[in-house]
Amino acid sequence: MTRIAPSLLAADYLKLGEEINRMESAGVDYLHIDVMDGHFVPNLTFGIDMVAQIAKSTRIPLDVHLMLAEPERYIEAFANAGAAIISVHVEACPHIHATLKVIKQTGAKAGVVLNPGTPAESLTSVLSEADLILQMTVNPGFGGQSFIPETLTNIEKLAIWRRENNYSYLIEVDGGINQETAKQAKQAGVDILVAGSYLFQNTNLEEAIANMKK
After folding, report:
1. pLDDT at 142 over 70
2. 122 known member of a binding site
3. How far is Cα 16 from Cα 144, in angstroms, rounded to an integer?
4. What is the pLDDT of residue 44?
5. Reduced to 3 states, what is the DSSP secondary structure of residue 155?
6. CB under 8 Å to 46, separation ≥6 — which residues?
7. 176 is in an annotated binding site
């Protein structure tokens, strides 16, 4: 089953409550929240207090993506704020196995993220521990970028390893997702589609989500 996670990075921040209600009414599966620190990526976005306010305003599980230089310092705080999934970048975590363990101890699902230039092989030692693998299909930091098709190779490998080893992680994709690229990602083995502009700028949201789930 394909699951949809609208990225709040593309929402109208002056109408964030209305935007979240619109997504909830349309039946999305998660809300994807990109947390950026201006160090690991060149941008600043949502913080802990904002995540807490969003969690209070919706029943949709929050999929929190930490684009932080030292994510382990903030895991407990984001879990307490209401994150259902907390994902960290393998590139930012020298002790990724320990970091995933810390996430799980909070009660949140543990995700690990790959940048476009990072090979899937960098995760082989933690695939049995991860609840989710997020493949970035653009360079992280800003919305509105074009999908990088070469990243599909990583997704295909992750899908094969999951099947061959009976792993249970979900595969998520984020960056440049629209009707066309969603199909490519799904064919490669993706379970969760993160989409920003394609959903928030769509006048027929329900139809767009139904098409993506197909």
Report:
1. no
2. no
3. 18
4. 78
5. helix
6. 8, 33, 34, 35, 36
7. yes
Residue type, 118: T
Structural element, H or E, at residue 21: helix 16-26
- Under 8 Å between Cβ of 161 and 192: no
Give the sheet arrangement for strand 192-195, strand by strand: 3-6, 192-195, 170-174, 132-136, 109-114, 83-89, 62-67, 31-36
Question: CA 169, 130, 119: angle at the middle one, nearest 5?
Answer: 90
Instruction: Confirm whether residue 89 is marked as ligand binding.
Output: no
Whether residue 42 has pLDDT greater than 70: yes
CA dist 188 and 78 (Å) reads: 31
Going along the chain from its start, the domains and CATH numbers come out as 3-213 (3.20.20.70)
Q: pLDDT band for 43, please (50, 70, 90 cuts).
A: confident
The catalytic residue positions are 34, 174
The response to whether 197 counts as a known ligand-binding position is yes
